[in-house]
Amino acid sequence: MNKIKKVLIPCAGLGTRFLPSTKSLPKEMFPIIDKPNLQYIVEEATKSGINDIGIIVSEAKPIIVNHFSRDEKLEDLLLKANKQKEKELIEAIGSMAKITFIYQKEPLGLGHAILQGEEFINGEDFAIMLGDDLIINYDDPSLPALKQLVDAYDKTSSSILGVQEVPLSNVSKYGIVDIKDDVSPLMEVKKTIEKPSLEEAPSLYAVLGRYVLTNNIFSYLKKVKKGKNGEIGLTEAIDMLLKDNKVYAYRFEGKRYDIGSKAGYVEAFIDLALSRDDLKGEISQYIKSLKL
Ligand code: G1P
Question: Which one-letter DSSP state was computed for residue 25?
Fold first, then answer.
C-alpha cells in the first residue's frame, strides 16, 4: 500500500486554446474516442492506488460534476433497454473513486487552484495531476506514471516531480528543472524555473503534469510572489520549497501527449485508436490508404 492517498486535479482553466468548443464544453470533458480525457486521468489515479480525489472546478462547469456522479435514471433506462454492459459501464464511473468537487472562484493560476484544495488534503502529503498531460504507459499498463512517482515518494518521503526530456525548442512551454546529477530516473532537483527562455533553460527535463508534494507546499504557495495578473505559480512555490527540503525529479516511463494543444489531442486519438483491438484494423488501414 502506498502512503499517498489523495490527489488534486485542477480543472478550472478557461481552455482558450480550444475555443469555440470550450464555450460550452470544458476541455477536460473532450472525448478521446469514447471517454472524456478527465476519466483517463481519474483512472490513472485509481490504478496508482489513489481513490480519494479532489477535482478543482469552476462553477461554470457542472458537466464535470454530472459525469462523475451516479445517474440512476440513465442506469434504469439502460437496464430496461437490455443494455446490461453499458449500464455497468455507467455505474462504474459513479463509484470508481471518492470524488470531492472543490470550487475555484477566480482563475488565479495553478498555485491558486492547488491552494483551494488545502482543506481537502487535510495535512497529508499528496499528488497533483494536470489534465493537459495524458500519459499512457503502453509497455506496462499496470505501472502508470503517477504510480511510478508514488513509489519513489515511498522510498524518499520527499516531493517528487514527474519529468521527461522535451526538445530544446519546447522548453519555454514548461516548468524546467535543474538537477544535481543526471542519475535518471530519480534525480535531486537544484532549481525549478517556469517557462524559461531557450538561453535560461538549465536542462531539457520538463515537469509534465504529475507531482507528489509534501504538505508544506501550502505554506510556500501562500508566500510566493504573485506573477502577472495576480497569478500564483506552483513551480515558483516548488522552487522555494526545495531550498529547505529535498525535492526529486523522477523520469517516468510512458508516452505523454500534450492534449492542451490541438496536435497533441489528435495524436492521442490516433495512438489510442491504434492501441484498441476494436479499432486497430480499420484505422491502420485508413491511415495506410492516405499514402502520406
Ligand atoms: C503547467 C505548469 C508547468 C508544466 C505544464 C505541464 O503549465 O505550470 O510547469 O510544465 O503545466 O503541462 P501550463 O501548461 O498550464 O501553462
Answer: S
